[in-house]
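TICKET #2291
ISSUE: user wants both folds in one file
ATTACHMENT 1:
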Amino acid sequence: MTSDINIAGRLVGPNHKPFIIAEMSGNHNQSLERALALVDAAAHAGADAIKLQTYTADTMTLPGAFTIEDENSLWKGRELYDLYKEAYTPWEWHKPIFERAKERGMIAFSSPFDETAVDFLEELGAPVYKIASFENTDHPLLRRVAATGMPVIMSTGAATLQEVAEAVEVLRQAGCLQLILLKCTSTYPSTPANTNLVTIPHMRELYNVQVGLSDHTMGIGAAVAAVALGATVVEKHFTLRRADGGVDSAFSLEPEELHALVVESERAWQAMGHVQYGVQRAEEKSRLFKRSVYAAKDIAAGEQLTGENIRVIRPGLGLAPKHYDTLLGKQAKQDIKAGTPLNWDLV
């Protein structure tokens, strides 16, 4: 079993309830007031952490470099540079967001998208780093993040098996001792059909690490199912109201849904338990309501037991139903009143 990972005093691992990350992304809609409200709402919903993304449009791409033409994309027709300019979280907002999260008893951290972002987050005392799916092949960035000595959470979306293996090796060689991988499908939104949750236990065994889910599906069903398959971390995009708009709002959870994820994922984790057969202590009183053999009519001493005068009914105070056929044809040793549970001394 993989060992626990300590993230700012919170233990993450199979023996602890799922670590729930609310991904703010660009859902602040360029308002610091809204960003702080998102922190408050995520904390109220019970999330363990709020996650940002640390980049600028200029650290991501160049003006005119690419326009999205994919018919299925939420951002069809948008130039990549403009999209990042709209979605980025101003770096001067990070400190007040981190401070608000701490006030609310929640962890704040971020995904850096270049080495200058790592340097900046180090100054803020980031307790953990997230590698986004599209950065999991950026080996210089991986080495810089690993060099911080902090735990690393890495999404594995849009990556080949070889690329994930290389990324894990780069992180480990550069000093990363605490690594969590997230199964991720890099489509926005994702569908349940392309989420492939059974990869989670396979990935855990393959790399000997904890595995979670970075989930872009609608709702919480996939995330709860992931916990049942061993996910220790769940990351979901989060907004105040989808109707407010925003670059990621269409596939983001609202506060009530985030709270439901916190509650239901913990229930799924608790329900996993251990391999168990037999009667649990909590069930012992319930055995009374199993069936047993009773006298259905008054039976005189010496009278034969038949299908007319004995029945299998509740409760379970008499002989077990498996003895019913054996009892048929036997004689009563004494008078037996209707409603009496049968035992071997009576026949």
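ATTACHMENT 2:
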Amino acid sequence: MSGKRTFGADEAGRGPILGPMVIAVVGLDRGASISLSKRGVCDSKGFGAGASARQKRRELAQIVRERAPLHSVRVIDADEVDRYTFRGLLNALEREVVHDLLVELGANPVDRIVCDGANMFAPLRKFFPQLEAVNQGESKHVSVAAASILAKDARDDAFAEIAARYEGEFGTLRGGGYLNAATRTFLDAYQDKHGALPPEARKSWGAQKVPSPQVGLFDSTSSRREPT
């Protein structure tokens, strides 16, 4: 990996009630940035939610994996999301994971780092003073867009596994895990049959959040953002 590096970080699946949250970090040099831009790497949310959108993300995710010198993805299951969200620390979870992925990939003080979330990621400047915490970073920085695509593609795969797991019992599972009519129908049917929510459901969704009494770098509640 030659020249100055730019690392981008983004997540997918922060707000759904069903399925994991995924966080990705991608490190690019200038050549990779130009290459990915020419191949159409942009904000994954702009592709939509249907089968064609999933296929487009899958194709671009493969290109990112092939051309990005550095990349890493972490899938965070519903239980871990619950442990943090019940304490009002979902933002802290995202900061911890991004910090760990940056360290894993070898980010250092001479690298540019761009994270999507101006308030959420500003505390990470204690570790990376050069870090840029911005809003809508995936529409402005190819490194963040690449991370967005990897995260969303991994979440697409995770949700497809959940849908396949329950298809024989409840039919086709639609809605992407967000709390819409299709997801409500599935959750109601599952609870009626089994007396509880499925293990992939976030029990903390919509629950009252109680901030931790010990506020540190990762568990700061000053910039908390609720799931949507």
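RESOLUTION: both attachments delivered.
EXTRA DETAIL ON ATTACHMENT 2: The chain has one domain: 6-194.
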